Structures are given as structure tokens and as C-alpha cells.
Amino acid sequence: VAGRGGLYSAECFEAAEGATKVEVASLFEARRGATGAATLNLVCERIGGLGPDPRYLAFWQLGSFGELDRIARELDGVTEPVRLVRAGLYRDLGAETL
């Protein structure tokens, strides 16, 4: 889903050993359905070695900072089917000042 004019939470994650792409997709489908006003913009896997570790990336567009707490903590302690490696908070290019 294209994002514009938003506050974005980026999640860089790895799939658990043996996890399938279907399991990873199912996790994000379930999270997307339970997010309230947050929009799942993107979940992607790099192609081969074309990109840094970790292998997967997801972007959520948030309507406000109030939505950030739930999204930012949702993967705390989760190890299957994914493990969060790092996260970040972003704005559209040109609107980076938080």
C-alpha cells in the first residue's frame, strides 16, 4: 500500500529457522487485521545478497504517535515465525523532523 504524508515504523526482522514464507505472511496478515488505524505498507524479502542483513523489512504507516506504542512493542519477545532485529521511525522525505 503506497504511503504518503505519514509517520512510518520500519521493522527489520529475520524468519525463524524453518519458518515458511506462508507463516511469515500469516503473521503480518493477522497483525494488519488488528492494527486499528495503522496501515501495513510493505513486507518484503531481499533477493539473494542484494541488501544488508536482516533479510526482511516491513513498513507500517501510523496516523499518530499514539499508535506507535502498540506497533513498537508487538514483536517484543516473539521468536517465531519471525524475530525482530531492529526498528526505526521515519517520515516522508522532506518531512524528517519529528
Write up this protein:
- It is built from 2 helices and 4 strands.
- The chain is of the alpha+beta class and 98 residues long.
- A 4-stranded antiparallel beta sheet has the order 2-3-1-4.
N-to-C SSE string, H for helix and E for strand: EHEEHE
Q: Average pLDDT, to the nearest integer?
A: 90
Number of helices: 2
Q: How many strands appear in the DSSP assignment?
A: 4
Alpha-carbon distance between the two ends: 23 Å
Net shape: globular
Taken as a percent bin, the fraction of beta residues is 25-35%
Assign the structural class, choosing from mainly alpha, mainly beta, alpha/beta, alpha+beta, or little secondary structure.
Answer: alpha+beta
**Low-pLDDT runs:** none
Overview features:
2 helices, 19% helix, globular, 98 residues
Task: Please give the structural blueprint.
Layout: E1 7-15, H1 21-33, E2 39-45, E3 56-62, H2 68-73, E4 82-91
Describe, in short, the structure shown.
The chain has 98 residues and is α+β, with helices and mostly antiparallel strands. 19% of the residues lie in helices and 34% in strands.
